[in-house]
Specification:
By secondary structure, the chain is mainly α. The chain has helices at 5-44, 47-80, 83-117, 124-153, 170-175, 177-208, 212-247, 249-255, 289-295, 317-345, 353-361, 365-381, 392-395, 402-433, 452-468; strands at residues 158-161, 164-167, 267-274, 279-286, 384-386, 390-391. The N and C termini lie far apart (86 Å).
Length: 469
């Protein structure tokens, strides 16, 4: 049987981006979290913040490294598997990826070393500044990636010359109406992912009755952050749905599993879409709700998949379930965060073991929601790689064979499973061990006076000897 290079390339890209998006979603939030608690430590002088900071700095370092590696592989595929896409849209996508390197990576690479190695070498204010710059760098990185992806979802600010897509308005490409919705939506997803992980870690320590001060801080700060951000995220999710309805109506119909145009339109809460027969099995439906969600009234006409040629329809199964899983995870986060704050205000949070277990077990909700959101967006965009301009089947490298993709895909799977398994295992052990006492700097030690350490040790030994004698 001949292997299809287009299908295998799509599987390979989906595999790589699934692993990659997990780490940026985590590190963007951790970087902001580190900057926040370092600012709190600088302002208050409380060593509790230092101990929590040092723990999450180690986690950030490991996650950041895995995110960079998987990101390089993902970008590498544009040239190997998607040569026609690179040729036709490279004048837009190339600069956007280059801007990420010049801005985001520059900030991260410059100041990340200060965060890891420079606490005793720079002033506390400059160290806090470095933390802020690393956080800003991670956000810049997400900005350029989302600008690239948003342009592929809804192409704006371009013109076509000799069959190639070239930029006509960079401002529209990078800060257009779609980008103003999708970038905040991604940032909020990253903050929520980290907030749930921080709260879950605090719950884990509380259940084990260890690191009680740190557990209390992480629980309170994590649940408080999520409680504030999740309603904002739900609002931006609604705005995202409105842009999909306007600019990608076929995707919207697939998300709703709406096979036929309806007026008024019902809302399918749950079903098993049957794409072959174009119907929903075991459907749970609310009449009229689909019209209200889409258009704000109960009688509007909503477009179904029957309004589009068969070759222009996206798959239904993944967008339908992906969207519902994403929303479901959001509702779990909402319930955990709000109920947790009720318990916190009543003084019962640390003693409610059932709720601590619920918080601990909810740690993957942010990751699942983020991955499912990307699946919904990317699969729902099909059959287009650049919506309305370039079909996925026409974007693959012409000389690519199915066997070549199968070999590279196998290699990616093996390497990723080994490397990422070790990375996740190491992060688990870092979190299981928990915070340690902050390492105190030795007065007078600098790069020009390395023997100050020996002086300090001798003095300490002398003091101990004097005390013993």
């Amino acid at each position: 049987m001949e292997l299809d290079p287009v299908f295998l390339s799509r599987i390979q890209f989906a595999f790589v981006i699934t692993f990659h998006i997990i780490f940026p979603a985590f590190t963007i939030g951790i970087a902001a979290w580190l900057a926040t608690i370092e600012g709190a430590r600088l302002f208050t002088g409380n060593e509790l913040y230092r101990r929590v900071f040092d723990l999450w700095l180690k986690v950030f370092a490991v996650s950041f490294g895995m995110g960079v590696v998987t990101g390089i592989v993902m970008a590498f595929q544009f040239g190997t598997n998607w040569g026609v896409l690179a040729e036709k849209a490279g004048s837009i996508q190339g600069p956007l990826l280059g801007y990420e390197a010049f801005t985001a990576f520059m900030l991260e690479a410059t100041f990340f070393g200060v965060m890891l190695l420079g606490r005793q070498r720079v002033s506390p204010r400059f160290y806090f500044f470095a933390c802020c710059m690393v956080s800003l760098g991670t956000m810049f990185s997400s900005f350029w990636i989302l600008a690239n992806n948003s342009w592929m979802q809804v192409p704006l600010g371009h013109s076509i010359v000799d069959g190639k897509i070239i930029p006509a308005d960079w401002w529209e490409i990078t800060t257009g109406a779609i980008m103003q919705v999708r970038w905040p939506h991604m940032l909020l997803a990253a903050f929520l992912t980290t907030g749930m992980c921080v709260a879950a870690t605090g719950a884990w320590y509380a259940l084990r009755n260890i690191h009680r001060s740190e557990a209390r801080m992480m629980l309170h700060w994590g649940l408080g952050l999520v409680a504030i951000l999740i309603p904002i995220q739900l609002y931006y999710g609604h705005l995202t749905g409105l842009y999909v309805l306007e600019h990608q109506p076929a995707k919207f119909a697939a998300i709703e599993a709406r096979w036929e145009t309806e007026q008024p339109a019902s809302e399918v809460l749950f079903a098993i879409p049957d794409e072959k027969e174009q119907r929903n099995l075991f459907a749970i439906v609310v009449p009229g709700l689909g019209s209200f969600i889409a258009s704000g009234n109960w009688t509007s006409k909503e477009i179904g998949l029957d309004a589009f040629p068969a070759e222009d329809r996206p798959p239904v199964l993944i967008p339908f379930f992906g969207f519902r899983l994403m929303v479901g995870m959001g509702l779990i986060m909402l319930g955990i965060a709000w109920f947790g704050n009720v318990l916190r205000w009543s003084g019962r949070l640390e003693n409610s073991r059932w709720f601590l277990w619920a918080t601990f077990l909810s740690f993957p909700t942010g990751f699942i929601a983020t991955v499912m959101g990307w699946y919904t967006a990317e699969v729902g965009r099909q059959p287009w790689v650049v919506y309305g301009l370039l079909r996925t089947k026409d974007a693959v490298t012409p000389s690519l064979t199915g066997g070549e993709v199968a070999v590279s895909l196998t290699g990616y799977v093996v390497v990723y499973l080994v490397c990422i398994s070790f990375g996740i295992y190491y992060i688990y052990h870092l979190l299981r061990e928990g915070p340690s006492e902050a390492v105190q700097g030795i007065p007078g030690t600098t790069g020009n006076r390395p023997l100050a350490y020996a002086d300090s040790s001798d003095s300490a030994t002398g003091r101990q000897g004097g005390e013993e004698s």
